[in-house]
Amino acid sequence: MIKRYLNSIKNAVFKPLRCIDYPMHIYIEPSTACNINCVMCDRAKLIKHPKFMPLEKFKEIVDEIKPKFINFSGYGEPLLAPNFFEMVSYARSKGINIVTTTNGVCFEGNIQKILDSKINALGISLDAATEKTYKKIRRNDNFPKIIKNIKLLTSSRKNNFPFVKLEFVIMGWNKNEILDFVKLTKQAGADAIRFQMYTQVDETHRRKLIGNLNPDELENIFRTGKKLANQLKIKTNFKSLLSEINELKINYQAKKINSPKKCLMPWISINITVDGDIWPCCQLMTRDCVMGNIYKQSISEIWNNQKMQRFRNQIRQGHKPHLLCQMCIPRSLFDLIKGRLFGS
C-alpha cells in the first residue's frame, strides 16, 4: 500500500501521460434517483429514467481498481440505492475508506445502519441555516427533520465516527446565513463545514442564483466566519476560500479563472457513473468527457488510453480542457491530502 501511495504522489507531482498505478481515489455514482429537486441542480433535465448501480458491478470495480478511498456521489441520492449499505460493507471489508454525500432526507430510520456500516465520513448538503431558505433552495419541507436526525446521529456515534461535515453552496439567496450556518453546525454536533462557490455554465441560471452577491462583502463574511468557527472549534475551508478570494471574484464576474495551479485529478482519481462511464473529474459529468466504460473495458484499457493522455497533456501544457475547467480553482496536493483526511 505504501508503494501505491508513493506512486500516486509521483503521478500528481510529475504528471506523466501514462500513470504508474491505478487511481487510489474514485468517485462512484450508486444512484441517479433523487428525493428532492434542488434549484441549482440540472438532474431533472439530464436524468429521465433513474438507475442504480448493480452490487456485482460495484464489487467488480472495487476488486479491479483496489482503491484506498471511495466517495459516493453523483446526480442521485446515494442512500436511495437498494444495495447502498451492502456496497459500503463490501468496501470496508477491503479496508477502503468511505465518504458519502447525502441530502439527509433518508436518515429517518437509517441512523443505526449508518453507524453500523462504519462509513468514515458523511457530507450532508443543506445550503441554508433556516427552514425558509432551505425550502427555497432545496424545495422541500424536510429541514427540521434533517436537523433533528443529524443531532441524533452525532449524539449516537462513538469516538466521533463517522466524521460529519455539513455542506453549503454559496448563492445570493443564502449568503446572509453563512455565519448562522457555522452556529447551526455547532448546535447539530457536526465536525466541519465545506462552503462551495456556486458554479454554473448557463449564464441566465447563474445570474438568477448569484443575485446580488458582492464578492467584497463575501470576503468580509469569510473573515468573520473564520474567527467564529475557530471559537466554536468547527473545521471549515474559510482559510482556503480567503486564499483564493481574487480568483473567486473573477469567477463571480463570469470570467475565466487563470489560476497558476494545474489540476491533479486526471492523475489521481476518476469518476464512475451508474452506467459505468468514466470521467476524469467529478465535475465533468458530460458526454464529451467520457474516457471509456468500465462495464465494457478493463481499467487498464481506460486509465492510460489515448483520451486520458490527451486530457492530461492539455493540462500539462497549461490549457483548460473544458469550459467547466475554466471556472474551477484546482486543488493543490496538500489540499487534496487534507481533504481526504477530513472527508472532502
Structure, explained:
This protein has 344 residues and is of the alpha/beta class. Helices cover 42% and strands 12% of the residues. It contains 16 helices and nine strands. A nine-stranded mixed beta sheet has the order 6-5-4-3-2-1-7-8-9. A hairpin with a 4-residue loop joins β7 and β8. α3 packs parallel to α4 and α8 runs parallel beside α10. The longest helix is centred in the middle third of the chain and has 18 residues. It is globular and about 50 Å long.
Give the helices and strands, then pairings.
Blueprint: H1 2-14, E1 25-28, H2 43-46, H3 55-65, E2 69-72, H4 84-93, E3 97-102, H5 111-117, E4 121-125, H6 131-138, H7 143-156, E5 163-170, H8 178-188, E6 192-197, H9 203-210, H10 215-232, H11 238-243, H12 245-251, H13 265-268, E7 269-272, E8 277-279, E9 292-293, H14 299-303, H15 306-316, H16 333-341
Parallel strand pairs: 1-2, 1-7, 2-3, 3-4, 4-5, 5-6
Antiparallel strand pairs: 7-8, 8-9
Helix pairs in contact: 3-4, 8-10
